[in-house]
Amino acid sequence: MNAFAFPAIRGVQAGRAYYVVMVPLGAVGSLLRFNDGAVPDELRAQRRLNKSRIPALVRYITSNPKEYVLSALTATIDGGFHFEPSDMNGPLRSIGTLSVDMTATILVNDGQHRRAAIIEVLRERPHFAHETVAVTLFPDHGLERSRQMFVDLNQHGVKPSRSIRLLYDARDERAKLSRAVVDWVPLFRDMTDFGRSNLTASSPKLFAFSNLHAAVSTFVSETGEVDEARVIEFWAAVAESIPDWGFAHRGQMTPAALRREKVHAHGVALEAIAIAGARLLNDPRLDWRTAINRLGDVDWARSNSALWEGRALLVGRINRSRASVMLTAEKIWSLTTNGADAPGQVG
C-alpha cells in the first residue's frame, strides 16, 4: 500500500482510538484538507476561512523562527490506516508508527487558520518544511462525525482573557511597561486582576490588567515616552492622587462600591487620565505633578451627571467608546489645569 508514515501515539477517548502524529510542515498543505475542491460540499463541516487572520500568523512564525509555537491541529481521517506499536506487549505499546493510505481523506476540524498560515510561511521560507506540527487524528468513516466534532471543539474551547495574554506576552514592549507599572506601584500590584478583562461586580480587585495596559499604552502613544522609570513615575503619581483608590487599597472601602459609585474605578477614566496626563507632560507651561495632584479634588461621583453625562456616562451607564474617552479626557484636562488653554486638541 502506498502510504504516509508518521511517528505516533495512540490514545482512547469515548471508547474510540485516536492518534497524535508529527507532520512535517511541508506536508501539511497536501495532506490536510480544508474546504478545497477535493472535498465535496456536504463534507465541508468547518466555518469559512477568515483570510484576514492569516498575515498576522505568518508574521508571528517568520519573525520568531527560534521561538514560535504552534498548537496541535485536529483532523478526522476517512480511509485506510494502520498503527504499528513499537512494543506489542510492553510499556511502549501506545507509541509507534501510523501508516496512512495516500488515498485517505484527512479533514481539518480545528486549526484551519494555522494550516493556511503554514502554507504561506513555506512560500516565503521553504526551509521550514522539515519542522513539524502535531496533528490529532480521529478515525471517522465517511466523515460522518466531522461536523459535530467541529461544533464540540469550538463550543467548549475557552480563549484566555486579554489580561492573561498580556501578562504572559514577552514580546510586547508596551505590555512589559504595563507589567513594570504594576510591579513598582504597590496599589496597582495589589489591586489588579490578571485573570479577567471584565471584573465582576463583587471582585475584590479594582483594575483589570487589560484596562490598565490600555491606559499605559495610550500614555506611551500620546507622549512618545518609552523610558520605564518615567512611565512608572507618572502612574505612581496618579495612584497617589486619588484618595478613593487608597481607601480601597487599605480595605477602608470596597472596590465594588467604587465601581458602583465612582467614574474613576472604570477603564474609561484610566484611559482618559492617560490622555490628559500625556498632554500635561507635553506642555512646558505646566507643572504636570501639580496638575495630577488635582485629580483628588475632582468630583468623580457617577451621580454628578452634570459633569459626566455625555462623557464617561451615557444615560447613567459607563460608556467606554473612543468618543467618551476623548470627551472625558477633555474634562479632566480642564479640571486639573483650572481651565488653562490647551496647546491643541486632545488625541
TrEMBL record:
InterPro entries in the record: DGQHR-contain_dom, DNA_S_mod_DndB
Pfam families per the UniProt record, alphabetical: DndB
Cross-referenced CDD domains: dndB (cd16412)
Origin superkingdom: Bacteria
Name assigned to this protein: DNA sulfur modification protein DndB
Gene: dndB
